[in-house]
Amino acid sequence: MVTYSSTRGDKHKYTASEAILQGLAPDGGLFVPDHVPGLDRSLEELAGMDYRSVAYEVMKLLLTDYTEEELRSCIDAAYDDKFDTGEIAPMAEAADAYFLELYHGATIAFKDMALSILPHLMTTAARKNKIHNEIVILTATSGDTGKAALAGFADVPGTRIIVFYPKDGVSPIQKQQMVTQTGNNTFVVGINGNFDNAQTGVKKLFADKELGEWMGEHGLQFSSANSINIGRLVPQIVYYVYAYTRLLKEERIKSGDLINIVVPTGNFGNILAAYYARRMGLPVAKLICASNENKVLFDFFKTGTYDRNREFILTSSPSMDILISSNLERLIYHICGDDADKCRSLMEQLAASGRYEITDEMRERLDMFEGGFCDEKKTLRTIEDIYGSYGYLIDTHTAVAAGVYADYRAGSGDDTPTVIASTASPYKFTGSVLAAIDPDYRSDDDFDKADRLSEISKVPIPSAVKDIRNAEIRHKTVCEIDEMESVVKNFLEA
Question: Fewest C-beta atoms under 10 Å: which of 48, 168, 202, 440?
Fold first, then answer.
């Protein structure tokens, strides 16, 4: 059985279901597995399976206290007709790479891949552990997690969900998706601050013992839908395994051939899932971490120093506008040799001074990672170039990854088959995408821009965008960072 413990030293061992319910470890650390099991089905066998079956074969290895019936039930409920393609995660070939399209779910972003299943994993976990409290999902979002979590948990019995987002730090479509969210158990709050402020505030609420006691007295308990929850991370491993097996099935590679994986990332969860897939035996050569102008991760891989003491830049890829990459803590724990005391010390340095430096020995354990970054001009030029050359439309985040990959390939000469994680529909960022392919078009309305984008590209507007065009705005609350606790209490007491 795989058990989970904290990256910061809490010695207690938790089952997968217990870790999913808690979200964050009691000492503020993140849950990590005591070992990473290898795939127990051959790549050829997996190549003959559909997405749901691959999901079961991967997830059963890490969620070991779920029965087969429980896990298959969660998977079947998650990966159904809410996705607009039976493949769930299809791939497209363009620009010397394979784009793994992770945006075919209900909210047209990659977060759907994990947040479609997390509510089912969580409510199953509550039954398994005889939890009678109402579960309150507390989440910070840089744009995509919020809507995907809201859609996943809306009106799920025994749960409520509160999402904090940076009021001026998401795209108009992202904001409209959240503030129009239905469901009597949903609550969306804009904060006067950036994503890092929201994320730090949420972590403080989790760690507040007095608030925890208040929650218990009211028959409530917190959990998280952020990528700090291991129940988010495990389902993300699946699609990297699935991508490899599709290349194998289509005879684009032979079994055992190495691939590279490029991931646009800010909070580090999506590329961490690829790292775990590699540790499970997926033949991966390089994990290429693509940053936008908030290039704290690029600098970390280049220098070995993580330093968030820098200007926070609002970019056209807002889901990556992050300077505190929470999931990096899990990688730090592993390259410390699974030493929680060392990991805790580095995280304390980060909290105290905003920076830490890893040892040379730890840096040697990062040899599978490459870092790159893409500025705003190159991001838009990449969208234009790929659309112009291949007729393939990508969003700004995917363009960051494609731009970084083009630089990596040119500089290294590495022509290893490469999968790029395509993390959002271009319609989620219509203004920026349209500016790249039709810069003369003028409108202040993102929905008019969506119409124009569809007219030019012949790519239909997803229902996730059409459905919110004239939807009622239901969530209007805005607060300061130091008001987050009182806002949470007011909602829970209502």
Answer: 440
Residue 264, in any domain of the structure = yes
Q: Which residues contact 427 (CB under 8 A, 6 or more apart)?
A: 108, 173, 433, 450, 453, 461, 462, 464, 465
CA atoms within 13 A on the CB side of 84: 15
- Strand runs labelled E in 326-481: 355-357, 369-373, 418-422, 477-479
* b/e burial code for range 86-98 (CB count within 10 A of at least 16 → b): eebbbbeebbebb
Do the domain assignments include residue 367? yes
Q: How far is CA 49 from the centre of its chain?
A: 25
Instruction: Establish if 409 belongs to a structural domain.
Output: yes
Q: What's the CATH number where 400 sits?
A: 3.40.50.1100
Residue 145: per-residue pLDDT = 87
156 within domain boundaries: no
At residue 478, the 3 state secondary structure works out as strand
pLDDT tens by residue, 148-190: 999 999 999 999 999 999 999 999 999 999 999 999 999 999 9
Half-sphere exposure of 189 (CA within 13 A, CB side): 28
Q: Give me the domain span that covers residue 451.
A: 91-108+231-462
Domains: count for the chain? 1
DSSP label of 142:
S
